[in-house]
Amino acid sequence: AAGVAMVSSAQLPPEIQLAQRLAGNEQVTRDRAVRKLRKYIMARTQRTAGGFSHDELLKVWKGLFYCMWMQDKPLLQEELGRTISQLIHAFQTTEAQHLFLQAFWQTMNREWTGIDRLRLDKFYLLMRMVLSESFKAVKMHGWEERQIEKLLELLMTEILHPNSQAPHGVKSHFIEIFLEELSKVGAEELTADQNLKFIEPFCRIAAQTKDSLVLHSVTRGIFETIVEQAPFAIEDLMKELEAQSEEEEEAGSDGGEASEGGECTQALLSQKRSEEPPAGSIRRAEPEVGQEHGGDDGDGPVLQFDYEAVANKLFELASRQSTPSQNRKRLYKVIRKLQDLAGGIFPEDEMPEEACKRLLEGRRQRKAKRRLPKSRPRHRKVTGEKEDSSPDLNLGIDHALPREQPRGRGRRGAGKRKRQPQKPSGASTGEANIQEPEKKKKRRL
C-alpha cells in the first residue's frame, strides 16, 4: 500500500506536489517548498515553450494561500508575505506575470468568505504586498504606458468590474491601498499625466457603478484622498523649489523673487505636468528610512496630480446622460474641490498662500544672513522674526490635515458649496443639459 501511495504521489504534476507541501503542517516543509517553487518557476518560464496554464497557477496559489494560512507569528507572516509576493519577479515574461497576478486575485475572491476574523490581517498584508510588487514590475519596464494599461485592465477586471466575483471586503481594501502603494513605489518618478492614467479606470467605475458601496469607496479612497493629500504634494514642490532656488543663488543667478503672492501657488501647481523634469532639477530626494511625511497613512512623498485635468476627466464622465444621478451628485462635489485646488484654493483654509509667504520670508532671511558681516551677531534677525516664521510650513500643513476634522466638511464656507462645477473648456459638448439637483441649500444653514 505504501508503494502504491508513493507511485501515485510521484505521478502527480509538480505544481500539485508543491501545493501540497506549501500547505503542509511543518513550517520547515513549507519554507522548503516556497524555495523550490521559485526555482521551478524560473526554470519553467525561461524555456521558450514553457510557462504555466491558468489552472496550474490556480493550484499553485491554493497552496500559497494555505501556506500563509498556516503561518502564525506576525514577523514570520510578514517575511512569508514578502517572499510569496516577490515570486512575481521569478516569471520571465510579462504575460506569465499577469497570469500569476490574475490567479492570485481570483484565489482571494474565492477564499475570502472562508477567512476568519483572526486571519484577516495577514491576508490584508498579502494583498498589499502583491499590489506593491505588481507596481514594481511595471517600474522595471520604465513605466511604459502599455504596461500600465495592461496591469490596470487586469486589476479592474478581477476586482472592480461589475461581473467580477470579488467580495466587497476585497474591493474596499484594494481601493484603500491603491494610491498608498503606488506612491511608495512611484512617487519619485511618475508625472502628473502618468498618475492620471492610473486613476482613469476609477473615474469610469465611479461614473458607471450601480453599487453604492463601490461608489463610496472609490470617491473616498481615490478622489477625496487626492484632495486631502494636496497640501503635502504642494509642500513637496515647495521644498524642491526652495532647493532649486538655493542652488541658483549659490551659482550666482540671483534673479529676484518673481513668484511672490498668488502666482506662487499657481506656479507650484503647474510644476509637474506631462514632461519629465531635466536631470538635477525639480526631483524629490529619497526619503530617509523611517521618516514620516505626516500624510494620512503613507511615508515619504505623495503623488503629484494636475487637479484641473482630473476635474475635467471626472466632469466628462459625470455629465453624461447614462451616469446615474446619485453618482453624478457625488462626483460633482469632488469636481468642485478639484477645481478649487486648480485655482489655488484649499479645502481647509488658505494654506498655500500662507505657506508661500513663509517660504519667501525664509528665503529673504537666509539671503540677509549670508550678507551680514561676520562681526555682527547673526541671531538677531532670526530671533526677532521667530514668532512669525516659527510655524514655517509644518503648521500650515498640520492645520490642514483632513483627518483631524470630520472629512474636511467643517471648515469650508457655505458659499463655496452653492455653485455647480464649472464646465471645463475642454469638456465634450452635448451634455450641458444635465443639471445638479439643488438640494444643498438646506444643509448650509
From TrEMBL:
Pfam families named in the record: Nop52
Residue ranges with Basic and acidic residues bias: 283-296
Biased composition (Acidic residues): 243-252
Biased composition (Basic residues): 364-381, 408-421
The entry's keywords: Nucleus
Family: Belongs to the RRP1 family.
Protein name: Ribosomal RNA processing 1
Organism: Otolemur garnettii
